[in-house]
Each structure stands twice: as C-alpha cells, then as structure tokens.
Write a structure and sequence with these properties.
The protein is built from 17 helices and no strands. This is Tetratricopeptide repeat protein 23-like.
C-alpha cells in the first residue's frame, strides 16, 4: 500500500512564501476581440491562435515564479549550512519540498529528491532521527512508484544520488534508534546505489552530499551494532585507507576512525593493536590541536584506559603517564570543576585501587592543588582510595 503523503508545516506570515500565490488577475477582454469571436474570419482565427499561444505563455510564466523561488531556497540552504544556522537551513529545506510539490507534483522523482534532502537535513542538521526516517520513507515510496522511464544521464545520476541519500539517512536513523539490523539492511542498499552510480560514471565520483566514506563508516558502525566484529573491522580499515589516500596520514579526519577501530580491536581482545591505533590518534591530536586541548585530553584518556585494559604490568607507567596528561590538559582547558576533568580523575583513582597502589598524595596534588576541593564526590572517592 502506498503511504499517505506527509503534511509538512509551512512558516506562517512568510511574505516570500505568500508571494508565490500572488498571481496576476485576469485582464478584461477588449471589445474588438469580442467582435472577432463572433465573426469567424481568417483574421479572427489567427487572433485565436495568438490568444492560445499567449495563454500557454501565461501558464509558463506562472510556473516560473515557483521555480525561481525553488532555486533561491536551494542556494539559501547551502549558505545557511555553511554558517551553521541549522534550524533556518532546515526551514528552507521544508520550503524546497513544498515548492517541488507545486512545480512537479507529489509523485515526481524531483519531489522525492526534495524529501530525501529534508530527511538528511533532519538527521544531520537537527539530530532528529524519527523525523528523518519518516521523510526518507516517503521519498522512497515516491521513487518506487515513479513509472516514467528516464533517458537522460543527468536524471539517472540525480535519482541514484537521491537513493544514496535516502538509504543512508534511513540506515543512520535506524542505527541511532538502536535497530542495528534495519540500519545495516538500508546502508547496504546505499552502498549498492553508490556502486551503480560509479558504474554510470565509469570511475570515481566526487561532490556528493553523502560520500563513499560516510556510507563505509556507517556500515562499520552498523556491523558493530549487530556484533559482526570482523565485518566492522573491514569497513573501518577501508574507510581509513580511503581517508589516507585522499588527505594524507596526518589529517584530523583519522582521529575518530582510529578511536572507533581501537574499540573494535579491544572487543576482539586484540589490545596491542588497539593501543597502536590510539597512539596514532593521540599523535595526530598533538600535531593538529597541540598537547593542551580538550581533544588531546580525550585521546590521552582513551590511550590510558587502553593500556590499563591490557592488564600487563609493564604498561602501568604508561597508564599513569597518559592519565596525568589527560587530567592536566582538561584542567588547563575546561577547568577543574568540569565533568570531563572529574570523570578522568575518578577513573584514574579506580585504576589505582584496582592495582592496589596507594598513590593518593599524587592524586590529591592534582585535585586539591587545582582548587577542586569543592567536588564532594571526588573527596569521597579519594577517601576510599586512602583506605585501600
């Protein structure tokens, strides 16, 4: 059964939108034209043809206004996204859907394209997976019922791009709602559509709203969600290879990828490899953000926990070193009372308790020496550490 069309709210008191409906009033027919209608001479037949042509031109002129407005909305959306004005950008995407329905009709693939872009906007600009999924499903229904045969390569390309966007959006939306299997199923469709698009262009493709890297990373996360660790590892290795080939080994895009693939290696009990990936992430953070930054502090804490998780005695010095680096960086950038600072200190304390060490003087110097004595929870935890 075909899904009922989604009713998209419009923005009230929007003069730009209202102007789309302010069409010119029909002009009064002159007296001599009325006489010609009553006298079927050669001239009158000629004037009838002229009148018909003018009426067709009027229809075209009437439709040109929504088309102009659609082009303006699309340009405005791109500008707003660059300026990080996400809510306003999403409103423009809503207008694009409304104008596409006016111009092309609800069953046209162009309308599906506008819906897919809106769904992607709800996902990436607003972080609303439920709304994103709803609009993406509506776009999919429209495309599946589109019967007109497309012959233009440009149209085929745009339809394939639309399929990539809607299946990627559906996949990530399902993933954010903790439905790993549905996510993986839809992301596989996005991957197949990407391959078909590459075949259509006989080579590499660029400038897509959803890149091949995006689809690969999402598939890795979906594979991890359904506990297919080897498959997840394959996808992340591929994503890392693609990023290195495109941007080099020192790009900040690799940081999150190294951190996520390290998590997979830890689940596979491959602690040595996990540590190597996190060391690479930490090195890039120091190079890009300097050693004293929240991002480097986070990478340092992850590295400390990876060394601790290995359980090897020879790693104890490394655990202590990276925990102290993380705490110091957090205190310098976010402050001693920040949640990240407190959490990292407490994780350090837990590790000390776990290994049976009583190095509380060092922890107290880090905590109380930095005016952190207001944290009642940390005080209580330090007391427990002192008691052994």
């Amino acid at each position: 059964m075909r899904a009922s069309p989604i009713r998209i709210p419009t923005v009230s008191n929007d003069s730009d939108w209202d102007s789309c409906f302010h069409l010119s009033q029909p002009t009064k027919i002159p007296a001599h034209e009325e006489i010609n209608d009553l006298c079927p001479t050669g001239e009158s037949r000629k004037s009838e043809e002229d009148t018909t042509a003018k009426e067709e031109e009027k229809v075209i002129d009437c439709m040109s206004l929504p088309k102009d407005k659609l082009a303006q909305c699309q340009k405005k959306t791109a500008v707003l996204i660059k300026k990080k004005m996400n809510t306003r950008a999403n409103q423009e995407l809503i207008r694009c859907v409304i104008l596409s329905r006016i111009i092309f009709g609800e069953e046209h693939w162009k309308c599906a394209q506008a819906l897919a872009n809106l769904a992607y906007g709800y996902l990436t600009l607003r972080g609303l997976p439920a709304q994103a999924k709803k609009h993406a499903e509506s776009a999919r229904t429209t495309l599946l019922t589109w019967k007109v045969k497309t012959t233009s390569n440009k149209e085929k390309k745009e339809i394939m791009e639309t399929l990539i966007i809607l299946y990627y959006t559906l996949g990530v939306a399902w993933l954010l709602q903790n439905h790993g299997r549905e996510a993986y199923f839809n992301l596989q469709k996005a991957e197949r559509s990407m391959k078909e698009l590459k075949e259509l262009h006989t080579g590499s493709i660029c400038g897509l709203q959803v890149s091949e890297k995006d689809v690969t990373i999402a598939l890795g996360r979906a594979s991890l969600a359904i506990h297919r660790l080897n498959l997840a590892l394959t996808y992340f290795e591929r994503a890392i290879g693609n990023v290195i080939a495109a941007k080099g080994e020192k790009t900040s895009d690799l940081i999150s990828l190294y951190e996520e693939i390290a998590q997979i290696e830890q689940l596979r009990k491959n602690h040595r490899q996990a540590i190597q990936y996190l060391e690479q992430a930490y090195t890039i953070c120091v190079s890009v953000f300097t050693e004293v930054s929240p991002k480097t502090a986070e990478a340092s804490a992850l590295l400390a926990k990876a060394y601790a998780t290995s359980g090897e005695v020879q790693h104890r010095d490394a655990v202590e070193l990276y925990f102290i680096k993380s705490i110091t960086a957090y205190q310098a950038t976010l402050g001693s009372e920040d949640c990240e600072t407190v959490t990292t200190i407490e994780e350090f304390c837990k590790w000390l308790v776990q290994i049976g060490e009583k190095q509380c003087m060092m922890i107290q110097a880090l905590v109380y020496g930095s005016e952190h004595s207001k944290s009642r929870e940390t005080k209580q935890f330090l007391t427990l550490v002192q008691r052994g």
